[in-house]
Amino acid sequence: MTSASRKRTAATPRRARKRNTPRFIAAVRFADGRTQCFSVDNAADHADARRMVFDELSEVAAVVISDYR
Question: What pTM was estimated for this model as a whole?
């Protein structure tokens, strides 16, 4: 008895995985004492995230950068 051979179908293309880019969160204290948290998504590393915060905001007294999970 001969079994019928199955035709192979083309595999559906896999979705390209999004590159695992780092995300950071910045806790900012302003000169007047206010505090606020910001998400920094376009930075390459912690130093770049810190630089971006100082470039975008004014009257910053202190910044703490952490990995965003």
Answer: 0.68
